[in-house]
């Protein structure tokens, strides 16, 4: 039975990858951070009682800033594959916490690679590094491929650039099977609530149900290539099953604006929106409503305003990936379109909002 170790197992990708590897028959070990409250919601459904003889999913406390902890876990698990998905992954937050972001996102990758080498696992353990389209930043060519030059635009992207190159370096210097997946944005109903797609689907669903009044957004003209996390974790695994390690761009090859994503999400809620004003003055106003998904709204309601607080000190305006190499060499193609993904996210967030409405009504009844 193959063993995998996943850092960031409690995150969006980590949870889908753990499910995927369990289905493939792997023994899966994940590193979770100690927190003052439970932080394993995304993997609770695959939790297995460690007392069971046949348990194949195990969690270990750890942190990418803690070398001795990583070395001990690697030594105990002796994994065939390590997926380094753990990161301070929010670009805007990296401007607030640049040093911490560098420690986790850059040095974390080095700590893992060095621990693998120190333990003499460099010929056994294959290593996947969660690299990112943010490396392209101020883009030098469109679409972006494996050979497009990097120009990172945030402390996050600069930290990830170190992780990218240290992965290449350990491959070249020590013959390690180490790969970078240069993944473009990927989302799902499990996406963190402060990333733009989830903020939109969750925010609009809550507004439609009367739980919030207005969504405050930053640069809605940013262009992104958005795929589904489920498609992208499959590719992470495929990259570690080849004869030779290599780096791959993973993207859909299609690009849309944040504004377009807002319109789709609204449409799935039966809301037609129009945008008025410009830049910081811009608002989205309800034109018409069909169906019963937005009972709290009426035409003329303002559901979105621009708040410069969400502008970044340096923005990545446009990203569009070219996944030709992944298609050609690995036979990988995304199966879920951006629009289908948006519909799935809205449906899940609407369910959650409706549950909250029922709960609130029940609480109010109890009080009365
Ligand atoms: P998430 O933010 O959902 O998950 C990040 C994970 O890293 C969480 O499990 C988090 O733990 C963990 N983590 C954070 N800090 C530390 C630390 N100091 N030590 C150990 N673990 C830590 O990210 P995604 O799942 O979306 O992304 C996975 C990886 O892929 C990240 O490295 C991200 O930068 C990268 N990436 C993501 C893309 C995307 O569009 N989703 C695109 C390209 C790259 P906790 O749950 O406790 O916070
Ligand atoms: P990104 O994702 O920075 O591309 O990084 P995010 O969803 O945060 O932003 C995408 C674009 O939307 C614009 N935007 C807003 N973003 C947020 N979060 N909140 C807002 O209110 C808002 N308004 C507009 C942003 O300015 C940006 O242009 C993600 C992360 O998952 C990284 O870890 C990963 O490496 C990259 O994707 C690929």
Description:
The chain has a seven-stranded parallel sheet, sandwiched between helices. Strands 8-15-14-13 form a four-stranded mixed sheet. A two-stranded parallel ribbon has the order 7-10. The model has no long low-confidence stretch (mean pLDDT 97). The protein folds into two domains: 3-183, 3-Layer(aba) Sandwich (Rossmann fold), CATH 3.40.50.720; 196-222 and 257-316 and 336-367, Alpha-Beta Complex (UDP-galactose 4-epimerase, domain 1), CATH 3.90.25. It has helices at 12-23, 67-77, 91-96, 98-118, 155-174, 196-208, 229-239, 258-268, 324-330, 338-367, and strands at 3-7, 27-32, 57-61, 81-84, 126-132, 178-183, 186-187, 215-217, 223-224, 227-228, 248-250, 256-257, 271-276, 283-289, 302-306. The protein has ten helices and 15 strands. It is globular and about 65 Å long. The structure holds NADPH dihydro-nicotinamide-adenine-dinucleotide phosphate and guanosine-5'-diphosphate-rhamnose. The site of NADPH dihydro-nicotinamide-adenine-dinucleotide phosphate has 26 residues, from helix 1 and strand 5.
């Amino acid at each position: 039975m193959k063993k995998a170790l996943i850092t960031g197992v409690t995150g969006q990708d980590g949870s889908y990858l753990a499910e995927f590897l369990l289905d493939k028959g792997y023994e899966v070990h994940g590193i979770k951070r100690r927190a003052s409250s439970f932080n394993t919601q995304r993997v609770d459904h695959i939790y297995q009682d460690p007392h069971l003889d046949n348990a194949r999913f195990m969690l270990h406390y750890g942190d990418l800033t803690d070398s001795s902890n990583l070395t001990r876990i690697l030594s105990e698990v002796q994994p065939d594959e390590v997926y380094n998905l753990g990161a301070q992954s929010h670009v805007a937050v990296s401007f607030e916490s640049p040093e911490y972001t560098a420690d986790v996102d850059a040095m974390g990758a080095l700590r893992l690679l060095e621990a693998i080498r120190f333990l003499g696992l460099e010929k056994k353990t294959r290593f996947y590094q969660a690299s990112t389209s943010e490396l392209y930043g101020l883009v030098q060519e469109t679409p972006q491929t494996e050979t497009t030059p990097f120009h990172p635009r945030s402390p996050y992207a600069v930290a990830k650039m170190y992780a990218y190159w240290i992965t290449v370096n350990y491959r070249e210097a020590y013959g390690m099977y180490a790969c970078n997946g240069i993944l473009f944005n990927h989302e799902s109903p499990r996406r963190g609530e402060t990333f733009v797609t989830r903020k939109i689907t969750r925010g609009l669903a809550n507004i439609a149900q009367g739980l919030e009044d207005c969504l405050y957004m930053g640069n809605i003209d940013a262009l992104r290539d958005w795929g589904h996390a489920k498609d992208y974790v499959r590719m992470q695994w495929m990259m570690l099953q080849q004869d030779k390690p290599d780096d791959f761009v993973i993207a859909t090859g299609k690009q849309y604006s944040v504004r377009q994503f807002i319109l789709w999400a609204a449409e799935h809620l039966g809301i037609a929106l129009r945008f008025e004003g410009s830049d910081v003055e811009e608002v989205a106003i309800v034109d018409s409503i069909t169906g019963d998904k937005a009972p709290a709204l009426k035409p003329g309601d303002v559901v979105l305003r621009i708040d410069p607080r969400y502008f970044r000190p340096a923005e990545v305006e446009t990203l569009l990936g070219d996944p030709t190499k992944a298609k050609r060499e690995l036979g990988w193609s995304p199966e879920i379109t951006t629009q289908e993904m948006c519909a799935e996210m809205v449906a899940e967030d609407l369910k959650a909002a409706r549950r909250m409405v029922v709960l609130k009504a029940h609480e109010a009844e109890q009080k009365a």
